[in-house]
Design a protein that fits this description.
globular, alpha+beta, about 160 residues, 7 strands
Length: about 160
């Protein structure tokens, strides 16, 4: 079991955070944004950044090439729908996408929006970790959390029309 501290300060002990989230054992703040038979999207539970979405496979796999044909189609379709909603209803101009195969969780993609305040940490991939840590350590105030929750509600409504 691993202890994981969520952005809301709550600590959970789970074997696999992705399994706990996609199965409903751990409820992400704001709930599920959109879900298909194969994938689950939610606000990142560790970093309070407006519109930072995690798209996770419900099947416990590690690699993109482990996806079945139907999973690949569902993945790209839902990823594109989320990105369009980020742009259309949240005004997010740029997003960095990450997925890594050496994670302790299983297949998931981070959709990290880029905001003006982030450029003080740089403009490249190298800036993302400092941005995430800054958000976790400095942005857990009531005002920012309310903005994150509002974005979750807006995306959820848009994606489930």
């Amino acid at each position: 079991m691993r202890k994981i501290t969520l952005s809301n300060g709550e600590t959970v002990e789970v074997e696999c955070l992705s399994c706990a989230l996609t199965s409903g054992v751990v409820e992400p703040d704001g709930g599920v944004i959109i879900e298909t038979e194969l994938f689950h999207a939610h606000q990142d539970v560790a970093y309070p950044i407006r519109g930072l979405i995690i798209l996770a496979s419900k099947r416990h796999i590690k690699c993109l090439d482990d996806l079945t044909e139907s999973e690949r189609l569902d993945y790209i379709n839902i990823l594109a729908r989320i990105r369009k909603a980020q742009r259309d209803v949240l005004g997010i101009e740029y997003v960095y996408y990450f997925y890594n195969e050496d994670t302790t969780h299983y297949f998931h993609t981070w959709m990290v929006p880029r905001y003006e305040w982030m450029y003080e940490f740089g403009r490249s991939v190298e800036s993302v970790r400092p941005v995430l840590l800054h958000a976790r350590n400095e942005m857990n105030d009531k005002e920012n959390v309310e903005e994150v929750m509002e974005a979750i509600n807006i995306l959820t409504e848009e994606l489930n029309k």
